[in-house]
Design brief:
Layout: E1 4-7, H1 10-13, E2 22-25, H2 30-40, H3 44-48, E3 59-63, E4 66-67, E5 79-84
Parallel strand pairs: 1-5
Antiparallel strand pairs: 1-2, 3-4, 3-5
């Protein structure tokens, strides 16, 4: 299986010393990506998901250019983007 290429926002990686902005992760779903991120950097799951569990309101995850949910399946070598929402007025 070719690993997914996961791109993390600077605002997130700044909270976890040693966290890389681009990470290769072998996973079949977005939930498995988050599990792998949590294993590498404990506490990251809490920044990405709420207790329901679901992706947090102000976090967007895109797979192959489409907004994803935790159960979204990943193709081998998928591009996964984790973005923080921008708001304001």
């Amino acid at each position: 299986m070719k690993p997914a290429l996961v791109r993390l926002p600077l605002l997130l990686t700044a909270l976890f010393p040693g966290a890389d902005r681009i990470v290769e992760i072998e996973a079949e779903t977005v939930a498995e990506v988050i599990d792998a991120l949590e294993a590498r950097w404990p506490g990251m799951r809490d920044r990405l998901t709420d207790t329901s569990p679901a992706i947090r309101r102000h976090i967007n995850i895109f797979v192959a250019g489409r907004r994803a949910r935790l159960d979204t399946a990943l193709q081998p070598g998928a591009d996964v983007y984790v973005l923080t929402a921008v708001s304001g007025g």
